[in-house]
Each structure stands twice: as structure tokens, then as C-alpha cells.
């Protein structure tokens, strides 16, 4: 089925983090129909091999396209880093929007020349992250950490708990 202007936007994430992207799209594009897919069966994507994240992303994209999505928003940093380029090559007629790592604005606004980055291992290993770092973080010291356990705390809604603070302080 070829999408048309009335077709829905497709959005996916590995968990619930993409709901903030959904809210922003709803606010900016209130008349758009939206399909949202939260891959709770495979959350978290972060510690998984890049090939596995690509496979999940392709499968979800095919599902959203089967429902008529006209555009796909990859509302997951890990999936964007691991699969966005692959998805654009696999589905050349479909527009994709991914999550750009926040390294660019952080590098532009740092007053110390040091930027801390929290991300999943797959995000750090992905081509998108490497490309953004290469283009925008020259001369900036990046302190990168995967913060094991943080994604699980966030997905569980434990944003301000002693356990979450302990993870962040380590």
C-alpha cells in the first residue's frame, strides 16, 4: 500500500522513552494520525549487538509500513545509531527521522571544553554517534559512560529514587 498525505506517521522506540517524541509530534502536528510502537518485548536495545537492533528496527518498520505509515520516526537513540542508515538504504522511498545525539549542542555550548555523554553501548558503537562526534566535537573532551542499569530504572519509571541516584553517582 502506497502512503498518501492522510496516511499516519509511524513512530517506534525500544521502550517508553519515545513517548516524549510522540507528545512533541502531537503538539506540533495535532492533525496527523500517528502509529506508535513500543518494543517492550526487546527492551532495552542498548546492550544488544548492533545487528540485532537493526533486525528489530527493520521488522518494526515493515510492520508500520504494512499499516500505511508514510514516514517513520525512529524515536530511540540506540536504534537511530544502529539502524537509521540501514533503514534508509532498505526503504529508499520512505522518509526516516532519527534521534540526533546531543553531542553537537553540548559541544557548542560547553564553557569548559568537557562534555559528559550518557548513552547505551550500541549508541556509542553506532556510525551516527561517531559521525556527529567527528563533525561537531573537535577539540572537546568527551567523557562517555554507559551507566549500566540506568535504562532499566528509567523504563520502570524510577526517575528520582535512591537506586537511580546510586547508578548516576557511580
Task: Please supply descriptive tags for the structure shown above.
170 residues; alpha/beta; Rossmann fold; 2 domains; two-stranded parallel ribbon; 8 helices; 16% strand
**Strand order of the biggest β-sheet:** 2-1-3-4
Radius of gyration: 17 Å
Relative strand content:
15-25%
- Content-based structural category: alpha/beta
Mean pLDDT: 91
- Poorly predicted runs: none
Number of helices: 8
> CATH topology of the largest domain, which one?
Rossmann fold
Distance between the amino and carboxyl termini: 50 Å
> N-to-C SSE series?
EHEHEHEHEHHEHH
Molecular shape: globular
The total strand number stands at 6
* Percentage of residues in helical conformation: 40-55%
How would you characterize the overall build of this protein?
The protein is α/β, with parallel strands linked by helices and 170 residues long. The chain has 2 domains: 9-98, Rossmann fold (3-Layer(aba) Sandwich); 103-169, Rossmann fold (3-Layer(aba) Sandwich). It has helices at residues 19-28, 50-66, 77-90, 103-109, 121-125, 127-136, 150-155, 162-169, and strands at 9-13, 34-38, 71-74, 96-98, 114-118, 141-145. The strands form 2 sheets. Strands 2-1-3-4 form a 4-stranded parallel beta sheet, with helices on both faces. A two-stranded parallel ribbon has the order 5-6. It is globular, with a radius of gyration of 17 Å. The mean pLDDT is 91.
TL;DR?
This protein is an alpha/beta fold. Helix content is 45%, strand content 16%. Strand 1, helix 1 (19-28) and strand 2 (34-38) form a beta-alpha-beta unit.
Amino acid at each position: 500500500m502506497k502512503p498518501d498525505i492522510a496516511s499516519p506517521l509511524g513512530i517506534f522506540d525500544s521502550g517508553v522513552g519515545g513517548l516524549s517524541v510522540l507528545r512533541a509530534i502531537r503538539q506540533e502536528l495535532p492533525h496527523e494520525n500517528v502509529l506508535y510502537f513500543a518494543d517492550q518485548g526487546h527492551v532495552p536495545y542498548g546492550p544488544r549487538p548492533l545487528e540485532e537492533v537493526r533486525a528489530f528496527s527493520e521488522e518494526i518498520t515493515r510492520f508500520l509500513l504494512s499499516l500505511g505509515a508514510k514516514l517513520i520516526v525512529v524515536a530511540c537513540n540506540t536504534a537511530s545509531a544502529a539502524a537509521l542508515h540501514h533503514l534508509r538504504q532498505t526503504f529508499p522511498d520512505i522518509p526516516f527521522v532519527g534521534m540526533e545525539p546531543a553531542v553537537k549542542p553540548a559541544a557548542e555550548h560547553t564553557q569548559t571544553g568537557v562534555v559528559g555523554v550518557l548513552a547505551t553501548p550500541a549508541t556509542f558503537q553506532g556510525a551516527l554517534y561517531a559521525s556527529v562526534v567527528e563533525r561537531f566535537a573537535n577539540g572537546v573532551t568527551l567523557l562517555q559512560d554507559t551507566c549500566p542499569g540506568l535504562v532499566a530504572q528509567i523504563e520502570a519509571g524510577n526517575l528520582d529514587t535512591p537506586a537511580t541516584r546510586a547508578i548516576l553517582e557511580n
